[in-house]
Amino acid sequence: MQMNTGRTTGSRSAFTLTEILVAVGVLLAVVVVTGRIFKVATDVTTSGQATIDIMQEASAIEARIRHDLSQISREGFLAIHSVEAPNDINITEWENGGSQGEEPGLLNPLLPADAAIRCDQLSFFVDSPVSSQVFSVGSGIGTQPNAQGQTSFVTYGHGVQFPDLKPYTPLNADMDVMPVGSPPKGFGHDPDIDQIQADGGELLPWRYDNPGLDESQWLPTVYTDYSSKKEFLYRQNQIPAEQRYINGTQPDARQWVLARQAILLADDDQEFAGDESKRAYLNSSPSAMSIFPNDARLVGPNKLDDGTSGLNADPPVIAYGRVDVAAAPIDQVRELLQTTRSPSGPRDFFMRRCMHAGELGDYDQISDVDADGDGLPDMEPRSVLEGNLFSLPGNPYLDQRFFIKNAVQRPRVERVASSLSKVDQSLVNHSLGSACSSFMVEWTYAEGTGEAFVPNPIEGAPDQFWHGVHYSPWEPLLSNSSDPGYSDAPWLGQRWFGLRNIDRGVMPYSDFVSNFPPVTDDFVSKQEVKGLGTAASFAIDPDAIDREQPTFGSPAPYGEYWATFGLNQDQPNLPLIERIGQVDSYQVDRSFTPWPSAIRITMTINDPQGRLDQGQVYQFVVEMPEQARGNYAGGI
Q: pTM for the complete prediction?
């Protein structure tokens, strides 16, 4: 019998180990690649959404500024305050102070230590019907509507944030259950700005309270009454030392809040400036007595302890951020800013001071006498020392520029109100941009600004022609600069004035005049002037407009620039004539300050949610409306 020795081959039912490892490796590679694709897609989506949010916020800010400038009032003034701080300013101050306590960080950790951080301010008046957004909580509240008016004082710029300040305590609060350190009933918790200024400081967006040092070096605070009747409204209670100080350190620049503070100018009675009635409008809206922290109009029974007439008796409630009405209509603002001038020497007595109570006379005819021979006209009937009405630090002379600068303040502004009380809710009303790490304001004059035909007092003689601003596009940036890199650089496009930045072609107007002197020969024709190259305006005195200087408010200096445009936009010459020999000629009025032809805003907007490391730079130019530019503004 033959046996079958063949073997039967069956089908394989499993993978080998090698095959499994290869398959798992491929799967992992696919997962990793897919994950990276999803991550990239998510990052792109997140970044794109953050960019869209930033651009939407920037567009909203631009629209708000454009709308306000389109309704600017030429009855008031316009001020530009530029501040530039080095990114490591707090570190420098810490090192100069002996490196005690904890070392602060950079203002913006994503920028180099020597980067410049800008926090400019822009202030002007707006003609547009508006209502107060703040309602009184006082016992004298009536049934009248909240304050309404036609003119507001608007300031754009960075605010300061103090979320550690205690919430307002309602009148019906149970003090037994209130947190320790809460203000008394009806009182709010505010920074003690008066004490800060008395100590030689100011509230700045980069404030640093070193947590490693004694609390007495931190931010002093005070309790303010927001609920009493007019005669007691805004009284302040000192706080025990153990509760008086809070850490007022500001967030880094990427979290700075851009504020738009609009103060409605409204007054409901004929009482003298400084009367207690000015603290409320129709018993419905709390009101500051003035937009000026130092107001020379506030006279009457408002006396200091020594019996002398005092300055603004109210604390700086506008800077506290809780009030949006001031009992100073635009005509009273103009009265305060009116300056007296000597027709025989206008350049010597330019913008000497404001008009004080008790003085009579026309705007162009008021004159004073220097009875005591100190070189300064007497400011009677007010008793003053060298023009310093309030014995202010630094003995400043109270000219028009002093009061314009005095009105520009940085308000407290919060992202989130500390309570549901309307007193605390007012702190978020003027928040405009949630994360603005840089805000820059620059201005320009158009071709021909300041030019004027002045009637010749000699019958039959040709009129005088005062040349305005003229630009030549081929002109070097600085005609007499010792730096060859700058002296050979031509002007590019429109000339812009502001805080010095030669790399960007920006300089103070005073520098522009120094480098491109005006044409003083009135026999040179307009066309001939254009062939002479760039020249400043003959009638616009740079000393009447801008100042630039380093400010040493601390061991670490920062740059500061002011441009102030006052009431005289349309009067380049004095109304009186001076005879020099046998020739009669008009004198240039040194207070002639035509307003800018355009404003340029450059800001850096950040993503408050941190989705983008770097912010977006956003720039736009706003042409000033015709009503603000006046008759000598040239052409755009």
A: 0.84
